[in-house]
Amino acid sequence: MQTVSTLFINGQAVAGEREAFGVVNPATGEAFAQCPAASPEQVDAAVAAANTAFKTFQHTADADRKAMLHRIADLIDAHADELAQLVTLEQGKPMALAQMEVGAAAGWTRYNADLDIPVKVIEDSETRLAELHHKPLGVVGSITPWNWPLMIAVWHIMPALRTGNTVVSKPSSFTPFSTLKLVELINEVVPAGVINIVTGEGGIGRAMTQHPDIRKIVFTGSTPTGQDIMRKAADNLKRLTLELGGNDAGIVLPGTDLDKYVPALFQTAFVNMGQTCAALKRLYVHESQYDDVCQRLAAIAREQVVGNGLEAGVTFGPVTNQAQLDLVAALVEDARAQGAQVLSGGAVQPGNGYFYPPTIVAGISNGVRLVDEEQFGPVLPVVSYRDIDEAVALANDNINGLGGSVWGNDIEQARSVAARLESGTAWINNHAEVLPHCPFGGSKMSGIGVEFGEEGLLEYTQSQLLNISRG
Ligand code: NAD
């Protein structure tokens, strides 16, 4: 597999100034390629290039920026196979899911291309015309995680470019190659310096969050890192969009059609091997259906074909890195030690790679780490409840508030329960569904701001009120 082995700064492919680092294929546990590593001086060079490019890019005609994003989407489509291969190699997801990720990356890019930046007339009277306009901010720093590397980079970069900002991107050092390729493709379309990429670990991210010439950081990742970014951003009042950790609860109401909904419960909990910010991470089931739901989920778990995502027929890939595998294993061991029952999976698969089969844990409740903490991996704790008030209290008993869901046949009842969830999104009879036109963001410790839709787009802008006196 050919990987991009340069950074892009000011439209140029440049070598990393620090020693390259190996990127591990989680299906083998072996490094499959060397990634260039940026120096702090290269972060400065990337920001300087983006700052210079902003002086002209901010004034490009709206129609030109729309056309650029459409051309980028076409390039993503044209390189879909290569991008999907890179995603599976570096992240581990089965090829069909990687292809979906690439398709979503192109779709999100086109959606952003077609969005309009609104001008709101606040007052149009004899005395004045007051209009609210939106202007780009300047250099946007994008820092991304390892779970959906290509798609999340697109979520950050496209609205930034659409609104006339310039970008410095830093992918996770676990999964840099699909973003490096994306930035190479974008550079075929936009002027030099409009998009730049630097690679490395947290130190490179910190150099960005402390940089005086970056006007906004858009960050997707863990809550502690988001808190660190927020502290550093205070120095020059950077705008922030923080999409952080989640520990999403789902509530199954009594009398729910299990034939219809249990497959979706499984799918939305285990999508991407559970490594999805808004995956279903704790499930609360009424005691009348508890055993049935647990057994059905465990049966679906046992049907999964666990293996290398590049192989045909594999439905379930590895965990993306050793640290995450260790965390998942430790949380399951802790639950077991506290008397929980492991109905499927429950142990690291012997051999190479970071494989942990889908695991259903029953006989557990709040107060056990596996329920209280974000597992971000292929294990779902299932908790029994007696009445709805108890279920809502248990669901809300968490510092996070990204998504939540209610499952049941009676939509009006589900709606009234969903309204009581402390979460940025509440799904009914679904979970983890994100859409380019629906604003998405966290409440409580899950983040600040939203992505997607017009609301998400405008987070990359500074409002300017134009007040024309007619007196
Ligand atoms: P992470 O916070 O460890 O790393 C994310 C990125 O931040 C990486 O590029 C990393 O190099 C960089 N980084 C690390 N320390 C930094 C610092 N001090 N300053 C600046 N940058 C720094 O997160 P992760 O382990 O890659 O991702 C998993 C987490 O992301 C989970 O908690 C998950 O829920 C969350 N996530 C949230 C969303 C969402 O939309 N809310 C989406 C995906 C993932």
Automatic annotation (TrEMBL):
Coiled coil residues, start to end: none
Keywords for this protein: Oxidoreductase
Catalytic residue positions: E243
Ranges for domain Aldehyde dehydrogenase: 16-464
InterPro entries: Ald_DH_CS_CYS, Ald_DH_CS_GLU, Aldehyde_DH_dom, LUC3-like
Top-rank taxon: Bacteria
Family of this protein: Belongs to the aldehyde dehydrogenase family.
Protein name as annotated: Aldehyde dehydrogenase family protein
